[in-house]
Amino acid sequence: MQVSVETTSGLERKMTVAIPSDRIDSEVETRLKDTAKRVRIDGFRPGKVPMREVKRRYGLGVRQEVLSELMRSTYFEAVMQEKLNPAGAPSIEPVDLTEDSGFSYVATFEVYPEFEVKGMDAVEVTRPNVEISDEDVSEMIDILRKQQATWEEVEREAADGDRVTIDYVGTKDGVEFDGGKAENAPLTLGSNTFIPGFEDGLVGTKAGEEKVLDLTFPEDYGNKDLAGAAVQFAVTVKAVSEQKLPELNDEFYARFGVEGNDEESFRAEVKKNMERELDQAVKTKVKNQVMDGLIEQNDVDVPAALVSEEIDRMRQQAVQQFGGGQGFDPKSLPAEMFQDQAKKRVHVGLVVAEIIKANELSADEEKVDAMLNEMASVYQEPQQVIDWYKNNPEQLNQLKAVVLEEQVVEKVLESAKVEEKEMSYQDAVKPEGQA
């Protein structure tokens, strides 16, 4: 078998493989002899069909089958022989199909980039330093109470924080527009659910009151027909309701499965959950800064095939996240929606893989067990969760991958420039860009 490799551009390689005719003929002959033993042809006894008749009837099909299998097997042989590391599946095109000269094909594919990770000491990280105060716990309890709140109709003017039930009709230049009409719609004033000015315009209204709001849609509104447009909303207030928060009592504590019926036990449990959330949020913020820093310091060619595969994964995730049915084809989502994020993910993956390889890292079993125990602790039957993971290799491997990624972050932090920053609990747990 002869192999030649040509670098066409960047990471792309064009590999030509020539399979000698004797290797092909030998495999075809073996297949035809096996076929002769099994085939049944009228006029011949089983196993006694002349080889020339078997070849006449089945020779072309057997040869095509052999060539197809040889393309697959010799591709991997050639890749190993040339010490190549393909990224993604190859595109294979036959070159010569004549029996006398053997068989040749060209495999075009990308390879993984070869590089050494640099600049870990130039990565800059700001680590949040947070102390959860009693006030933070009280605010969280207020949030939990609001989540369990009920609404009670009142005979007074609507105030910020109240919920109004309304009918409304939106018009532009006197004509109703799509999506601008509803009946018995609940709206919490101050929630910023509607366009600017809508909720403010209903503060001070009473049940039974009608009001016309002259508003303007934001310039960046998603519907281009309405973006920046002046409109009117004719609103009828059907009811005004105020929020009734539940009392801090045994019934309220029981809703959250807290052991013990006193406020002290409940506050302790809430703080424990806040600490868990805070720990995860800090890890995420630090990890994101580390990964962004590594990308900035390591300009790496990213294989387009891997980006394409990542786009397909992100399409599938998007469909699942938004409840897409089986009849929805994820590939109908434009690739451009995911292009930049997919490229970044692949870039990060390449750099992380190189750090793992260079430092011979593997998932620390003690850290895997610690993470599994922490995850299981929030369930009523922790041991069942632990056993489920340990009996599902695929899920356990995903957990190990998370731990290994954390170990990579720890390795980078050994060299990185890390600055501690005092931060409130609220800012620390907010997603990136919102703090």
Describe this structure in words.
With 435 residues, the chain is an alpha+beta fold. The protein folds into three domains: 2-111, Trigger factor ribosome-binding domain (Alpha-Beta Plaits), CATH 3.30.70; 120-131 and 252-429, Trigger factor, domain 2 (Orthogonal Bundle); 150-244, Chitinase A, domain 3 (Roll). The protein is 43% helix and 23% strand. The chain is built from eleven helices and eleven strands. It has helices at 21-38, 51-81, 134-147, 250-255, 263-297, 304-321, 339-358, 365-376, 382-390, 393-413, 425-429; strands at residues 2-9, 12-19, 86-96, 103-111, 124-129, 150-153, 163-172, 175-188, 210-216, 230-244, 417-422. Strands 6, 7, 8, 9 and 10 form a five-stranded antiparallel β-sheet that branches. Helix 3 (134-147) packs across helix 5 (263-297), helix 5 (263-297) packs across helix 10 and helix 8 (365-376) crosses helix 9. The longest helix is centred in the middle third of the chain and has 35 residues, at 263-297.
Write the layout of secondary structure elements.
Elements: E1 2-9, E2 12-19, H1 21-38, H2 51-81, E3 86-96, E4 103-111, E5 124-129, H3 134-147, E6 150-153, E7 163-172, E8 175-188, E9 210-216, E10 230-244, H4 250-255, H5 263-297, H6 304-321, H7 339-358, H8 365-376, H9 382-390, H10 393-413, E11 417-422, H11 425-429
Parallel strand pairs: 5-11
Antiparallel strand pairs: 1-2, 2-4, 3-4, 6-10, 7-8, 7-10, 9-10
Helix pairs in contact: 1-2, 3-5, 5-7, 5-10, 6-7, 8-9
